[in-house]
Amino acid sequence: MKQLKHNGQISFSMFTANGLYRKSNGLKNKEGGEKRQSAARRRRDRRREAAERREEEERKAREDAERRVQPNSLFRLLDRCHNSLSQGIQVEADATLTTQGDAADPVNRLYPKHIVPWRDFPQLQEQIWDKFDRNIAFTMRPLFPSDTQIDYVVTNIQNRSIYSKASLRNFERHTVDNFVEKVIEVSRDDEPLRDEFGIQGRVTFYDRTNPSETLLENSLEQMNLEDARTPQRPANTKRGRG
């Protein structure tokens, strides 16, 4: 009898332990399943966020590309010309790589004998801005070269140092004259501004230098430049014995 009771207690204890084990194992499986589901949700959230970021970046890239091909307003044009073009000028610092000649004795060219301060320039410039301010609708209209067109000019002047009169003229033509001519052309087509500035006819910038003279000058400058870059051989060179 005692043995049966003892066996019964053992069987009951084993049953109880087995039940507790299954319950504990079930809880562990449940917790493990919840963790896996939570990790899966986090992965889905990360993928969704990454996809949203890519879509946002692609949208901004499309908008930026579309904006860059759109014509600029006057003030945007002036800002780009100043920061991207005028500030991009590079002057050759090595005198041996520049054209040779007497800058104080230009041949067949007009040149100033005296340089004096333009003291009333700020006042005159303010008068110009006042005229544009009275026509704010004009200054905000997209009528001028786009950022893409300006970027093309930037690529043409990058890494090109000013080493001669011809290279300086080219820089001025591409970065100043062409844009000023465009501003005057558009202003001429606007009746209020045409009257404000008294624009009559067409204003065109051009080089008054004779074409044959320009070709000769460019050839001479190139010759001087090539001569400057050619290393000179010493007259009497003897190889020593070591």
Please characterize this protein's 3D structure.
- The protein is mostly helical and 242 residues long.
- It is built from 8 helices and no strands.
- It has 2 domains: 68 residues; 134 residues, no CATH class.
- 65% of the residues lie in helices and 0% in strands.
Secondary-structure map with pairings?
Layout: H1 2-68, H2 74-85, H3 121-133, H4 136-139, H5 147-157, H6 165-188, H7 191-197, H8 211-229
How many domains is the backbone divided into?
2
Helix-strand makeup class: mainly alpha
Q: What is the average per-residue confidence, as pLDDT, rounded to a whole number?
A: 77
- Report, as a whole number of angstroms, the end-to-end distance: 117 Å
User: What is the tally of helical segments?
Assistant: 8
| Strand count | 0
Q: Can you tell me the overall shape? A: elongated
Largest sheet: none
Structure at a glance:
Residues 21-68, 222-242 are annotated as: Disordered. The protein has helices spanning 2-68, 74-85, 121-133, 136-139, 147-157, 165-188, 191-197, 211-229.
What structural keywords apply?
242 residues; mainly alpha; 65% helix; elongated; disordered C terminus
